[in-house]
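Chaperone protein HtpG
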Amino acid sequence: MTTGKINVSVENIFPLIKKFLYSDHEIFLRELVSNATDATLKLKHLTSIGEAKVEYGNPIIEVKIDKEGKKLHIIDQGLGMTAEEVEKYINQIAFSGAEEFLEKYKDSAKDSGVIGHFGLGFYSAFMVASKVEIITKSYKDEPAAHWSCDGSPEFTLEPHDKTDRGTEIILHIAEDSLEFLEEYRIRELLTKYNKFMPVPIKFGTKKEALPKPEDAPEDYKTEYVDVDNIINNPTPAWTKQPSDLKEDDYKDFYRELYPMQFEEPLFNIHLNVDYPFNLTGILYFPKLDANLQVQKDKIQLYQNQVFVTDNVEGIVPEFLVMLRGVIDSPDIPLNVSRSYLQADGNVKKISNYITRKVADKLKSLFNENRQDFESKWNDIKIVLEYGMLSEPKFYEKAGDFVLYPSVDGKYYTLAELKEAISANQTDKNGKLVVLYASNKDAQHGYIEIAKEKGYEVLLLDSPIVSHLIQKLESDNENLTFVRVDSDHIDKLIQKEDTQISKLSEEETTKLKTVLEEIVPKTNYSVQLEPMDSTAAPFIITQPEFMRRMKEMSQTGGGMFGMGNFPEMYNLVVNTNSDLATTILTTEDKSVQESLVKQALDLAKISQGLLKGEELTAFVKRSFELIK
């Protein structure tokens, strides 16, 4: 028997491991199962190139609980270790077996799927165990070895009578970690971290019904047999070629990822690249509402089929963290606990690749079946609009598929929209004016007035639309967006012909004075405009610039402090209306005031501004007028 000290630079590293090296104790199982997988995949590779003269067979990894003995076993049928290798890989803590293996076989091992850092990963066992044993037999014709350590730098290493190839790790669970002897807890961890590991993982057994014999009697009772309970899917959809998968396979995998999600995804994007970095995965577009506060931890990051984290910000472009799915890459740099990303040039390259791939897929979906794409637009627009604002590379490609719907359910790309409205909606200064509504019902009256003029009105109702149109205006010369209720229609798109006012300049000034005495100055600015005599006498509008800056300020952007400004409106009074003449010629001040208040309240109703006490007073006044 050999005894010795583990070769570490700190006298007692184990308390440090327990306290600092790993942020989350539960990942010990992930690390040990990953090591077992490494050992199995290494053997597979060595047998495939003829270096290991043994039968690979159909190896599995087994996790066993011995509750009475307070032990947890992780058993593999991989390449095992000789006593010399135990000495080297286990006792020299900073030396990684996987790293040396990859270096030696770097040309032929690219696709062997080796997960990584055996050295440090193994020591995570001491976070939950007071003593750790390794019983291991190499695929080489050498005796088995038994290593044991009780959490101090002292260890023992002696021969063992194990005859079958592979390694068994035995954790003597510490008193403060007895939860890891509970079956539900281990199942939970295996499901979380190892659900898609590439080697089958056995955890206990389960009952399976035997097929009913053809000559079974009528009173035949189904017979059951105990079979291995394999808790993982070693070949998940993202590890396969897109050409080998049907639409139903993608949907089945979505249900496997999110068993509590009952709504089907809208569509998926299969990622598959091996140069200049290795990355596979499947992203799903779920149905999203217009609320940006969605759960942003639905994409799962794997490293060679080992779950790492569901916080993928930094790898996935920010606008796509609202999606769901899986990304798997051995080239994403992780720290020793595989839980936090480190700054690295590869990460930005990966992020850019994902952006490009998503844009290409959206373009192909749009081109292949535009009608279907349009039907899904409301469910995906918030992601795409956010992408246009946050990712220049996505913005460059977005013109091919980003849509601008009309209030009547037509869909335009920006180029199509410009062409459709250029003849009718170009103002006298040569500017193309895009009219839009943010709420079809609340702005219905304004929409109808615009449509009577033959104008197209878009429906842009996402919470970030103010930011988006600001960007579109800055990138498209002579293009401006105005909400349909931001001025009266003739001012929104000014043409050469101008309306002549029925009222003289003196009468107009007098009417304005009367109105300003009655209309509250704190919220309304009175404007007198000559309009068509059939147009509404009083119109309330909200200036585009002020409203847009206020909206942008509230969602991050715009002018500093604008979000706190009080709401300001224009009261536009049609000087060619009969009501304007009536107000001007009425001598009785109380009647004049009543007419103005009634007309103002009617205008407020069209903007949804009449509420509470004001609404009650309006209803009462209206009933009195029709007595």
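thats it. Residues 332 and 345 are 10 Å apart (CA to CA). The radius of gyration is 36 Å. bye
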